[in-house]
Design brief:
Layout lengths: L2 E4 L10 E7 L5 H10 L10 H4 L5 H11 L6 E5 L14 E5 H4 L10 H6 L10 E6 L14 E2 L2 E2 L1 E2 L12 H19 L6 E2 L1
Parallel strand pairs: 2-3, 2-5, 3-4, 8-9
Antiparallel strand pairs: 1-5, 6-7
């Protein structure tokens, strides 16, 4: 599922499109130790080992971006701090982003994807227009900018409910949805994308 998200404008980057990809190496012993220290004994969520397993497919994501979207301005690689040995960290289009670089300190360490995604707009140097990928979404054919944005507006987007403190409480759902709607109107007025997933 492709997710397109927005931030307020950054001077000089009105037409640039960036990619953001989040990745975790669930086999990293330092990460596993820190996660275990903060993990509750009983979990109500999807916290299985498979969720954090590295299937060795990340290089194909980067190959797809290079081959099928060479127009992308920057790739912001969001990680806890681990970096694949094969990754060219000196590539001019690559920006390594650690959680501590953009997530407020009071929410660190972060092992929850909602926290990691909620603050993506704080990544330094991120274009106003960016496409957020998970590491299990792959580009397999040529793409152009208009696949994602037309006339500065998104073609597709996924609006998700980032705050799920108590999903059975309808008041929380209403407040979050009202907040998201107000923020959408501030940014885009009454414009709605062609498709809302």
């Amino acid at each position: 599922m492709l997710q397109v998200k927005f931030t307020r404008g950054i001077a000089g980057m009105e037409d640039a499109i960036d990619f953001v990809i989040a990745w975790v190496d669930g086999q990293d012993d330092r990460w596993r130790k820190q996660r275990a220290a903060f993990q509750p004994e009983i979990s109500n969520g999807d916290d299985s080992e498979e969720r954090y397993r590295d299937w060795g497919l990340l290089r194909y994501w980067f190959r797809g971006a290079e081959r099928f979207a060479p127009w992308v301005r920057k790739i912001h690689f969001v990680t806890w701090g681990h970096i694949p040995l094969w990754l060219n960290v000196n590539h001019p289009k690559l920006h390594i982003v650690k959680h501590e670089d953009y997530i407020p300190k009071e929410f660190l360490p972060a092992f929850n994807s909602h926290v990691i995604e909620m603050y993506l707009h704080r990544i330094k140097g991120l274009s106003e227009r960016f496409v957020y990928f998970n590491d299990d979404m792959f580009m397999i054919r040529p793409l152009c900018q208009t696949d994602f944005f037309k006339d500065g507006k998104p073609c597709d987007m996924l609006a998700f409910q980032p705050v799920v403190a108590n999903s059975s409480n309808p008041t929380i759902k209403i407040r979050v949805n009202q907040y998201l709607f107000r923020e959408w109107q501030k940014l885009f007025g009454n414009f709605y994308p062609q498709n809302i997933l």
